[in-house]
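From the shared-data thread, chain only:
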Amino acid sequence: MSLTADQVATFVADKVGVAVSDINGDTALFSTGLLDSVSMIDLIMLIEHEARLEFWEADVTLDNLDSVDRILAYVEARNAPS
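Structure, as tokens:
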């Protein structure tokens, strides 16, 4: 499986009760308070399940989680061959 922008946007929209079209790639998710720490746990579980990777504790940062684009970039970097 792979994680898509639509999956992340749908997750966020469902959590906060807005239309998916209101969530774009650079919408700030945590730094604006749109999502909270409880939502972060659910989001990490979604990422782990869909991207089939274990989210490392050190990677739980706004740099990796504060927008759809940042989440997808993190997943892409983690899945890149080393």
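The mean pLDDT is 95.
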